[in-house]
Write a structure and sequence with these properties.
This protein has helices at 18-25, 40-55, 105-120, 135-143, 172-187, and strands spanning 2-4, 9-11, 62-68, 74-83, 86-96, 125-131, 147-158, 161-171. By secondary structure, the protein is an alpha+beta fold.
């Protein structure tokens, strides 16, 4: 499966991707808001191999993609993990190479996976959890129309202290309404000039 956006290509992982994932996992900023510590090499290899293996499952629940530029450079990963007991619901997750933070790639990937989830996969709900202090991740989720659903106080312990987590979610009908509004904005005729007519 491959998804193309304005600037990105989201595609299935291959074994050749392990060194690139290993490289950005080793970046010190990558671990700033993630409870993931240890050997970056083994984590990257395990992660990529899991994505490849689970993409082949006949009753697929994990849709985790490499995020690449048209040049082929990997800038991160994003995916949906369906709830195996309630397949109308999925968890969204995204990670980016810190060298590419601040360019909107996370938001662009998030929108692409909302389209996949509420379109091809016919989901009813998509949700995500992020460390509360990760403001960039919060902005990414809000840009896709997700609403804050809850605060989990100090439910993550890493880097020597406790962290809060925030839960965000969106329903299919909310996503479709937002897409209809965007479509209307993009198809409105250009303003011809002049002052608006006063109400009578």
């Amino acid at each position: 499966m491959e998804i193309r956006t304005k600037r990105l290509i989201l595609r299935e992982f291959t074994p050749a991707d392990i060194p690139a994932v290993e490289a950005y996992h080793a970046h010190p900023d990558y671990h700033r808001f993630l409870p993931w510590e240890g050997d970056g090499q083994s984590n990257a290899e395990e992660f990529v191999n899991k994505c490849i293996r689970r993409a082949q499952e006949p009753d697929r629940v994990l849709y985790q993609f490499a995020i690449t530029l048209p040049s082929g450079e990997i800038v991160g990963s994003a995916g949906l993990k369906l709830n195996p007991n309630h397949r109308y619901e999925a968890h969204f997750a995204c990670e980016l190479d810190p060298a590419h933070w601040g360019r909107g790639y996370g938001s662009e990937s998030c929108h692409a996976l909302m389209d996949l989830g509420f379109g091809t996969l016919d989901l009813h709900r998509i949700y995500s959890q992020v460390t509360a202090q990760n403001r960039a991740a919060v902005r990414m989720l809000m840009s896709a129309g997700m609403q804050r659903e809850g605060l989990f106080r100090e439910n993550r312990f890493f880097a020597g202290h406790w962290w809060d987590a925030l839960s965000y979610g969106i329903l299919a009908r909310d996503w479709r309404t937002a897409q209809d509004v965007d479509h209307e904005k993009n198809t409105m005729p250009p303003f011809a000039g002049g002052a608006p007519e006063a109400s009578r």
